[in-house]
Amino acid sequence: MSVTVVGSIAFDAVTTPFGSRERMLGGSAVHFSLAASFFDVVHVVGPVGDDFSQQEYEVLRRRGVETANIEHVPGGKTFFWRGEYGWDLNERRTLATELGVFADFEPKLSAAARSADVVFLANIQPELQRGVRVQCESARFVALDSMNLWIETTREALIETIKLVDCLMLNDSELRELTREPNFVRAAAQVRDWGPRVVIAKQGEYGAAMITDEGFFALPAFPLETVVDPTGAGDCFAGGLMGYIAAHPGAELDHELLSQAMAYGTALASFNVEEFGVERIANLTSREVAERVSELRRMTHFVEKPVDLRDPALHASRAGLAGGSRATRVTASLSERDTPTESG
Ligand code: AMP
C-alpha cells in the first residue's frame, strides 16, 4: 500500500524569536512526506522550478520518498513563502506567498501515485487538490488541509473539494472561519453536513481534537521545553496520522484506529518544532518516534478507580447548612399559607 500527497513544495523564509532562516526547504507536501515516510512509500506530487536542486531532492530520497511525480518546470520558480512568529507561537504572520510554478500546474499522476490507498490533499489551491482527488479513485481514506488564504480567496471551490474527502484537518481558528461557527462541535457538525465523516481541529501547542461518527477524542501536544519553529507541524501531524492509517491496510477505519493514528501524528509534530524547517524530521529515527508515542500514552492515560462519592446536598442538609436553610425557606413559605411545617 502507499500514500499520495499533493501540496506545496517550497522554499521558506522563517523568523521566530529563536532565530531565522532566509531560504530552507519547506512546503506542506514536503513536511508531510518526511513524516509519513516512517510508515510507507509516499508519492509526492507537485511542481518545482530551476532553483530546486539535487540537494533538495536528496532530502526526500534519503527517506525513501518517491519523487517521480515532482514535475520540473523549465524556467520556473519554486513556490516561496515567508512567515514570522512572535512570542505566541500559535500565531503566525504570512509576509509573502509566491505561487511560482504552482500558478499553472495541472497534476498528471503516475499509475503508482493514482493507486495509493491513502491520499492527503495538503495545503495548496483547492482546484489543484480536487485535480488529484479525482485521479485517486480507489483511495480508502482521503484527507484535506487548507489555510486562511484559500478560505478567504476561494471559499466555494474549497467547500466543493471538501465534499469529496473523508476527513477535514484544519487549524482550529481556520475551521471556525471556514464554517462561520464559533466552536469546534458546531463547526464539525457543519463540515459533516458537507460530507467528511471525520473532522480534526489542530490546536497548536494545545494539541488536536477529533470528531467521528463515534464521538469525540483529543490529545494534548507533547510538552516540550524547546520549541524553535512551528512551521510544518500541522503537516507532520497529518503525515504521522495518515502514515499510521496506510500502515494498517484492510483495517476498519474506526474511532479507535483514528485515535491511535492521532498519537503518531502528535509525536511527529512535536519533533518537527524542535528545529527549523525539516532539520529535525529529516534526521529522526524510528526508535525516537516509538519512544515518544509511548511517553505520550503514559502521560495521557489514567486508570479509572472509583471512590465513594458524597452526596454534597445530603451532607449539607444533615449538618444544617445549605439544605437546612432551603428547608427553612420552604417552611417559611408554607407557614404563610397555614400548612403543617417541615424542618428538614
Ligand atoms: P504548516 O505550518 O503545517 O501550516 O505548514 C507550513 C508550510 O506551508 C510551509 O512550509 C509553507 O511553505 C507552506 N505554505 C504556506 N502558505 C501556503 C499556502 N498558501 N499554500 C500552500 N502552502 C503554504
Percent helix: 25-40%
How do the strands line up in the largest sheet?
Answer: 5-4-1-8-9-10-11-12-13
Number of helices in the DSSP assignment: 13
Instruction: Sum up the overall morphology in one term.
Output: globular
Question: Termini, distance in Å?
Answer: 70 Å
Radius of gyration: 25 Å
Q: Which molecules other than protein and nucleic acid are bound?
A: adenosine monophosphate
How do the helices and strands follow one another from N- to C-terminus? EEEHEHEEEHEHEHHEHHEEEHHHHH
State the major sheet.
9 strands, mixed
Helix/strand class: alpha/beta
Mean pLDDT: 93
Question: Which spans have pLDDT < 50 for at least 5 consecutive residues?
Answer: 327-344
The count of β-strands is 13
Strand content: 15-25%
